[in-house]
Each structure stands twice: as C-alpha cells, then as structure tokens.
Write a structure and sequence with these properties.
This protein is an alpha/beta fold and 507 residues long. The protein folds into 4 domains: 106 residues, Cobalt-precorrin-4 Transmethylase, domain 1, CATH 3.40.1010; 89 residues, Tetrapyrrole methylase, C-terminal domain (Methyltransferase, Cobalt-precorrin-4 Transmethylase, Domain 2); 95 residues, MazG-like (Helix Hairpins); 80 residues, no CATH class. Helix content is 49%, strand content 8%. It has 21 helices and 10 strands. Helix 2 links the parallel strand 2 and strand 3. Helix 9 packs antiparallel against helix 10 and helix 15 packs across helix 17.
C-alpha cells in the first residue's frame, strides 16, 4: 500500500499553510473529504487534479458509517499510488477511522482547527464534541462545550436540546460559520441560523459558579431553577407539576398586590421575586417535558406587546388610555378569531376571583352597549335582587342563585361608580378586621354583653354599638360570652332600638 498523508486545509483558501501547499503539489492522488471548501479554487489554479467523496454523504445512513466509507475509499485509492487526503480538520472522525484501518503509518499535516477564532471566547477548560454524537455528550456547566460539524438544521436542533439540559436557553454562545465569521447569539437560536454545513461550529462558554456570585442575572436565576429541578437537586422542587403549583402562582401575585397596597417597597421586590420564581419554575417543568422553555415565554410576550401596540411600533393612532384599551380589545378579538360578543364574554378566564370576573364580563358586555346608563339607574336592581333573595330564603328557594344575582348587581353599581369591586371589598374586609380588633379589646371577662354594651366608651358610642352588634351576631364565639345572642335576642333588639340606622353589618 502506498503512503497516505492527511492534510488539514481549514475552511478558507488563506488558511492553507506552506507545508500543506507543498504536500498537495507532490506526487500521487489528491482526495478531498468534500468539494465544498476553499481548497478547490487553489487546486485548479495550480493545476492539481483531485477527486472528492461528496457522493458518500448520500449513501451513508449516519455519520459513523460515512466516516468508515470515506476511510475505506482512501485506502482503496492508496492501493495504486500515494494519496493526499484533504480534510477541514485532521481530527475529523474519518481520519480516526483511516488510522484504525490502515496497517501502515499515516502521515499527518495539521492545519488550522475548524474552531479557529472560537478559542478566544473559551477562557478555560473546554470539552469538544462531534455534533452527530449528541446523544453521548458528557456536559458540565463549569466547562466550555465546543460542538463541531453542525451539518444540518435538524442536527442543530438535537444538539440544542441536549445542550439546554445543562446550559440556560438564553445563555450567549459563539457560532463560527464556514467563511470564518463568528456570530454571538443565544443557545435557543442554534437551530435558527440561516445556513448549516460541516464547517459550522459552536462554542457554549462555561457558566459561572452559582454560589460564588454576588449579583445574579436572569440567566443565572434560570440556572438556579434548573439545578433545583435536576436529578441531584431538591426533592420538593423535582416533585412539582403545573397543577401542584397553580395555587402558589395566585397566592404570590396577591402577596405582591398587598405589598403595593401597603406602600412597602422592600416587601414588593421580595414578593415580585416570588412571582418570578413561579413563572420560571413552570417554564422549566415545561422544558423538561419538551413543551416550551422560558425563552419561548419571553419571545411570545414580546411579540404580543409589539403587535398589541401598533400605535407605538407601527402607524396606528391611539392618543388616550381609553383609545389604547379599545384598540387592545379589538386586536385581541381579531387574534383569537372571536366573531361574537358571547365568545368574548366566555373568554374571560373562570379561574379569576368571582368579583374580578364579574367586572370583566360586565365591561365586555358594555363594549357593545349592553349596560346600565349610570350607577343611579342600577340601584333599583339591587333592591329587586335583595327582595328576591329574601323571598327565596322564606320559601326555601334558590338562595345561592339569588345571592349571586345580588352580588352581581352590586358589582354593576360599583363599576358604574368607577370603583373596582375587588379592591372595594378588600378595603371593607380590612376595615371590618380593624373594627373587630378595636371592639374585642373592649370586652372585659366576667361581664355580660348587655352590661358591656351600655358601658362602651368613645366619642361615638352609637357607632360602637353598631360595630358590636355586627360582631356579636356574626362571631359570638370570638367574644367568649356567657350567652350566645341570635337575631331575635333581647340584646340585639335593644341595640336595634337604640341604633335604628344600623345596617346589620355596621360597615
């Protein structure tokens, strides 16, 4: 068998070393791993005949088989004369197979590595992988990962998913194309590049040690959640599902709202962190199930904000907040193909608190003129619904349904009065709790409620009586009294006589 020389020629003509040029002009056949390289022009200019193995790509079922077929083709050619085998990089797997199959020594002329230029961004230990071997990648977040020969978009997609098991989807990577250009992009975009061939390489820089950071960016936080959800992470976090976490998301949002209401800025940024935790947890669960990743969430909401604000990003006009909201709703209907207003009403999520859902449904009905003229006009509806509720209670009718109608009418009045019912009720509950606390402090153990009622101090005893009446009726157990008052008790009758304007709940 004649001598075989493997020559690393790089991607571009300018990468061809003087030693490689001398070897290529020497005696024997020149065999190219692929004709899709910068070497062919140089060979023609210098009158060097060559043959290429591109046809093998169509015949081989996978990259391992292709490497073996290329190696055997070179060995067969070397049976007649010396062979100069030109490859992008001498670490090509066909070269390894050639050395394995060849009984004689193989000369190697190492040219520039195909990842030339990427090393400047490595800055530490680097693991190198062939893209086609993606299933066997042994990845470590604290080491760089360099992936060679991203030949197709499909292969890049498999590599991306494998890398995302270790690195955040939005982490920055470096991609080197066949012409030597280096582009910085996100890992999630690895299968969204314009062109793929065997010359494409990607470098994923190592992640910083999480416990050593003083400040954390979004990618760092994403890594924290991935670590918690990893096989050697937290047992509780690994166990969670979308369903098990659904109430947590609602609770954390309400706690953030509470911090806003209290004007507590320090508590707010802490509570917003808890909300963010829920979002990233749900995204990581989805990623592990092959559904979507946090990058998809961010991309989707960015697209929505741009499409829903044509008055900012396009030529539409909206000069007031009301015009903006009207435009938003119209675009929303068009995007969701909602042809009827009933479909718009049904689209209000049922998981909302009932007061909030009622208000949203009423607002959307009002968009097509289905509404009361004003709050004053709606007041008679409250009286009507209250009478129907009373009748249902007396006749053992649909008490729950009539109570719901009354509440729905009350929401209408609040909405037309430019009051948010959810916030109004929250304020009423808070006020009740404060008054309960103040009244409870007046109770003296060992005395009857009647005695204590008559001794209530303060500048407004009438109001205090109303408060206590409400508390006793609704929560007699809270006061530890010797007698439990009822709606018909002498104590309550006495308070009603003294407080004719009492509303029952005193609120």
């Amino acid at each position: 068998m004649a001598q075989i020389t493997v020559i690393g020629v790089g991607f571009r003509r300018g990468q061809l070393t003087e030693e490689a040029q001398r070897a290529l002009k020497g005696p024997g056949a020149v065999v190219l791993h692929t004709e899709r390289c910068g070497l062919t022009e140089w060979l023609r200019e210098n009158g060097v005949p060559y043959e290429a193995l591109d046809a093998l790509y169509e015949d081989a079922e996978d990259f391992d088989r292709h490497a073996e077929m290329a190696a055997r083709a070179v060995l067969e050619r070397a049976g007649a004369e010396p062979v100069r085998y030109a490859v992008f990089d001498v670490r090509d797997r066909s070269v390894g197979k050639l050395i394995e199959l060849c009984e004689a020594p193989v000369d190697i002329i190492a040219g520039p590595p195909i990842e030339e230029g990427l090393w400047a961004h490595a800055g530490g230990a680097t693991d190198c992988f062939e893209a086609s071997d993606w299933e066997n990648f042994a990845l470590h977040a604290d080491r760089n990962a360099l992936v060679r020969e991203l030949a197709t978009r499909e292969l890049a997609s498999e590599v991306k998913l494998k890398l995302m098991d270790c690195y955040p989807a939005e982490c920055k990577i470096y991609v080197r194309s066949g012409d030597g250009e280096i582009e910085r992009t996100s890992l999630v975009n690895l299968d969204r590049l314009p062109l793929y061939d065997h010359r494409l390489s990607a470098l994923v820089p190592a992640e910083r040690e999480l416990t050593a950071l003083e400040r954390y960016g979004f990618d760092d936080f994403d890594r924290v959640i991935r670590r918690l959800r990893s096989p050697d992470g937290c047992p509780w976090d690994r166990k969670q599902t979308h369903r098990s976490l659904r109430t947590n998301l609602v609770e954390e949002a309400y706690e953030a709202v509470d911090a806003i209401d209290r004007g507590d800025t320090e508590a707010l940024y802490d509570e917003l962190g808890d909300v963010l935790l829920q979002i990233v947890l749900h995204a990581e669960i989805a990623r592990q199930h092959g559904e979507f990743a946090i990058g998809d969430v961010i991309t989707a909401i960015a697209h929505k904000m741009i499409s829903r604000h044509p008055h900012v990003f396009s030529t539409a006009s909206a000069d007031t907040p009301d015009q903006v909201l009207s435009l938003w709703q119209q675009l929303k209907k068009e995007e969701r193909h909602q042809d009827t207003q009933a479909e718009v009403l049904k689209s209000v999520t049922k998981s909302l608190p009932s007061l909030m859902r009622a208000e949203k449904v009423q607002k959307r009905a009002a968009d097509v003129g289905f509404d009361w003229k004003d709050a004053e006009e709606c007041f008679f509806k409250i009286s009507e619904e209250a009478d129907e509720l009373r009748e249902a209670m007396e006749r053992h009718g649909d008490v729950e349904g009539e109570a719901g109608d009354l509440l729905f009418a009350a929401v209408n009045v609040a909405r037309l009065a430019k009051v948010q019912p959810e916030l109004a009720l929250k304020g009423a509950v808070d006020k009740f709790v404060r008054r309960f606390e103040a009244t409870e402090a007046l109770i003296v153990p060992g005395q009857t409620l009647a005695d204590q009622i008559m001794k209530l101090p303060g500048p407004n005893p009438q109001d205090a009586k109303r408060v206590l009446e409400s508390l006793v009726i609704a929560h007699p157990e809270a006061f530890g009294s010797r007698a439990t008052p009822s709606q018909n008790s002498p104590i309550v009758d006495m308070m009603r006589r003294n407080c004719p304007k009492s509303t029952g709940l005193g609120m």
